[in-house]
Structures are given as C-alpha cells and as structure tokens.
Amino acid sequence: MGESDRFEPLIIGFTCNWCSYRAADLAGVSRMKYPPNVRLIRLMCSGRLDPVFVLKALAGGADGVLITGCHPGECHYLEQNYKALRRYHLLRMLLTQLGVEPERVKLVWASAAEGGRFAEEVGRMVEDVRRLGRLNWPAVAADGTEPGDGQTPNAGHVHEAEPVVAAEAHQEEVTP
Amino acid sequence: MSTNGAKPKLAMYWAASCGGCEIATLNIGEHLLTVDQVFDLAFFPCIADFKVSDLEAYADGSIDLCLFNGAIRSAENEHMAHLLRRKAKILVAFGSCAYEGCIPALANLTSRQAILRTVYLENPSPDNPAGVLPQTITKVPEGELTLPAFYHTVKALDQVVDVDYYVPGCPPESEQIWAVLQTVVAALSEGAPLPPKGSIVGAGQAAVCDECPLARHEKRIPRFYRPYEIVPKPGLCLLEQGLVCLGPATLSGCGALCPQVGMGCRGCYGPLPGVVDQGARMLTALASVIDVSGKPGDDEEALARRVEEAVSTLVDPAGTFYYFSMAHSLLRRARVQDDGQGERHDATDHH
C-alpha cells in the first residue's frame, strides 16, 4: 500500500488547558512534526473529561481517543487528574469488554514544557491505531445481521428499520 | 371483558420479556376493577385469549393506550411493535426492556452466533447430534416452515418505532403503574392534559439516593466487594462499604427498595434526566470515590498500577453499569469477533 492510500486513523484528543494543551502548543511553535490525525479539544482539566465524551467520539466514528493531562501532583485543580486516571482505568476495562482494543484509548501526561513528549506520544498512538485499523462503530451499532448464519428475515415479516441513532452517527461521521 | 364500544381500549403486549411487567400491572390490586370499568381490553395475550389476527382486524388508531413491555430481539417482536404502533393512539414503552433493553439487551455483549451455539449445541442438555440450528425458512415435505429471525442486536422499543411515553422499572412499581393509568384515565375522561410526548412517567425526578434512608458520609472506597463477599453493616450506605450501588446514577421512583435490604441498586429505573449514558455516569461517580491518590513526585507507573488494582476489584463493569441500559447506551453493543467456526471470542471474557 502506498503512502497516499494507507489508512489514516481519526483520533479525538482531549487536552487540559494548563499543561497538555500548552505542550501541544509548544510542539507547534517549535515546529515539531507529528501526524495530523488528532483533532484536539481543549478542556479546562483532564478531570473535566466525562467518559461520555470518549464513548460519543467512538460511537460517532473516531478510531481512537487521546486523553492528556498534567502530571500527577501538578494538576491546576489539585487532584482532578487523579480522578481522570481512575476513570481512565475503569473506562478501559469497560471498553475491553465492549470489544474496543485498549490501545485505542490512551492517557498521556505532558507538562507545558513537554512539547516533544506530546508529539512523540501522538505519533506512537497514530501508528498503534493505524495497525489496529478502522473501528467504524456506527456499523457495529447498526449491525442487525450477521452474514452466513441462515437467519435471513422472514418474507413480509420484517421492517429493517435503520436505528435512528446509528443513522445520525453515519451522517456525522468524519472521514479523515 | 366488556363489549361496550364507547369505552377507551387498552392493550398490553410482551415482546422479549419475562412477564414481570404483567405481574406488576396485575398487582395494582382492587384498582383492576376500576381499570375494567374504564377500559375495554382490546389485546392482552398474557391474561386473555387474543389472537394477532384480532389485532390486525382493528382499525388503525383504535386502541387508546398500549403498554408495550419487552425488548426487540426478533423479527416477530419488531413486527408486533410496528403493528401496535399503527393500532394505538398512545404507545408506552413499559418497563425497562421496552424502555432501554434491560436484561435481554445484555445479549449485546455477545453475538447471535455465540448464543445459538450455546443454546443449541454446547449446553449439556440439548440432544442435537445433527447440529440443527433454527432457520427462518425450513422446507419439509408438507411445505415451508418459518420462524422469525433472531437478531444479533437487541433493541429498545424506541429504536424501531415512535414511542409516546416511557415507564421505567424492572418491573415498574405497582403504585407507579396505577398513577400512570390514572393520568391517562383523567386525560381520556375529563380531558386533563397528558405529559409532553417523550416524557418518562411513573418515576421520580431525583436519584435513588434521594429516597434511600441509609446513612451517607463522605465516600472513600479502597476496593469493591461483590455481594457475597461481605455482610453489609445495616443502616449504612452500601457504596461506602464497597458494594456497587447504582443509586447515584439511577432515577428515583422505586422507593430505594433494593438498598434497604442490603442489595445495591442495579439501576433498573434508568438514567437521570439529561443523562445520555447511565453507565458512563455511574463510572464517573465510582471513579471519583475510589481511594487511590498520590503526591507530587510519585512514580507514575506505580500509581497507575495501584489504580488498576483498585478498579479491577470491580468485576464486569459493562454488565454492572449497563445492567438495564445496554440498548440505550452510546455504544449499544459489544464489537464481537466471531469466526463462526465454533471458536468463541466472547466480549465478556475480559480476564
């Protein structure tokens, strides 16, 4: 597969305002190169990250989610990043059960001085997710049939209504 | 059964359900007499002999109120949902299965193939040497036999048809059912206003904790316990004692019955108003009170391991957080690798 037609994962990144967003900023102003696959959303704190954000990103078609925050002990809001850490580990257990590979959701600590670390971690994650391939959750959630099991719907007995949520997710899906 | 055509018509139907909703409905006791006085039973296969052909013969919109309980797990369930939607003026997703998937939707953690294999081939009880699996169409000398298709993904009622109201609960509490019936009766007989379409009726407004009498303090939980592992201290919040209780993330209306007898809330009344995903809400609440923290300069990997150790005492987060709301959750189901060769990669085997 050539450079141009390889799979480009779509990753949603949540950064905290005080350290990790500044790390991303530093990477930018220092002209460090990292893959353009991450769409960053700035939160005030990693502790603001509701797991719903992650689930919604995945349900809407993202291939991975990057969560970044200040190093433990350096949170602008004292210990909210510890909460983020606990949520993250519980969320990973949950996602594993739901068939999402743990590599698709990653937590990275980066201080405002760690532009290089931020760029490196993004690069590593993009490669990891590229190896895993597309997640394409809208298709998973809409899946009403499995091919080849002889369970074809009875004639005149079925309305294959596309579930509303999945249909919306299809429309909102962003192709990288 | 009255044949008085002037009375409003009531239907109650079960799709993928256990029958508990019907029992809870019949448990309204002497109010049943009022229900019989007010309504004409149009379709209620659990308690009287109605045929689908009876229902098909009714004019569209001729049933005033249909309580639909049970999830949508087969083509037949979906067909009946469409049929009842056509026949009923007010269609109520009645009980947790119709509202948000409930126990049947836990099947979304595995695959249709795996379920059929377990039930028809791998369980010790079936005697099935030819490995016969149910087919939607089977040709026999006498003609064709048909069965409704068994879905891969269990859905809530509102994921296949338009729903007017939701009554949560597994099952809904009988006094709540009676309150809902009274609201409808008042609307039909006196023209009293009905709640806005899409409302959750027969429930409270706050969290289960709000009506729970157990004493609460600041929570710091070093680890979780499963119900069989400890005997909870009476009178004290179960969550504080490390027993998972979905009270903080669950809508009130049940009277906090489970926590009062030492069993943590399982979440059957569904999410609080404005919450998109009940499981994520509970995950957040639990992660906030896990007592693992650190100080500046701590080794980050060691800290992560300590957190991992603490959260891993919560066995089966997906089944716990989405006990009742899997079909309505943001992800709706697990992504299951099923090779169809008898190898089973069950999404629930996470250990």
Structure description:
The complex is a heterodimer of chains A (176) and B (351). Chain A has 176 residues and is an alpha/beta fold. Chain A has helices at residues 20-29, 51-59, 80-97, 115-132, 137-142, 164-172; strands at residues 11-16, 38-43, 64-69, 105-109. In chain A, strands 2-1-3-4 form a 4-stranded parallel beta sheet, with helices on both faces. In chain A, helix 1 packs across helix 4. The two termini of chain A are 17 Å apart. Chain B is built from 11 helices and 9 strands. Chain B starts with 8 loop residues before the first strand and ends in a 30-residue tail after the last helix. At the A-B interface, helix 2, helix 3, helix 5 and helix 6 of A face helix 4, helix 6, strand 8, helix 9 and helix 10 of B.
- Tally of DSSP helical segments of chain A: 6
Q: Determine Rg of chain A (CA atoms, Å).
A: 19 Å
Helix content range of chain B: 25-40%
Strand count, sense and barrel status of the largest sheet of chain A are: 4 strands, parallel
- Roughly what percent helix of chain A? 25-40%
Q: State the end-to-end distance of chain B.
A: 55 Å
Average residue pLDDT of chain A: 84
Quick summary of this structure?
The complex is a heterodimer of chains A (176) and B (351). Chain A is α/β, with parallel strands linked by helices and 176 residues long. In chain A, 40% of the residues lie in helices and 13% in strands.
Helices and strands in order:
The complex is a heterodimer of chains A (176) and B (351).
Chain A: E1 11-16, H1 20-29, E2 38-43, H2 51-59, E3 64-69, H3 80-97, E4 105-109, H4 115-132, H5 137-142, H6 164-172
Parallel strand pairs in A: 1-2, 1-3, 3-4
Helix pairs in contact in A: 1-4
Chain B: E1 9-14, H1 20-26, H2 31-38, E2 40-43, H3 52-57, E3 63-69, E4 72-74, H4 75-87, E5 88-94, H5 96-100, H6 112-122, E6 137-140, E7 143-146, E8 150-155, E9 165-167, H7 174-190, H8 257-260, H9 278-289, H10 300-311, H11 317-321
Parallel strand pairs in B: 1-2, 1-3, 3-5, 5-9
Antiparallel strand pairs in B: 4-8, 6-7
